[in-house]
Amino acid sequence: MAAVMTSRARPRTRLRKVPAIILIEWRTILVPLEVIWYTLLKGSRPICPAGNGRWKMPGRTLIWGIGNEIMGDDAAGLFCAELLRQRNIPWIHVCLCGTLPENYICTIERIHPETLLLLDASDMGLPPGETRLLSLSDIGGTAFSTHGIPADVLLSPYEASVRIRIIGIQPLRNTPGAGISPQVRSAAERAADAVCRRSWGNIPAFQRQNRSPR
Question: Based on the structure, what is the number of domains in the chain?
Answer without folding.
Answer: 2
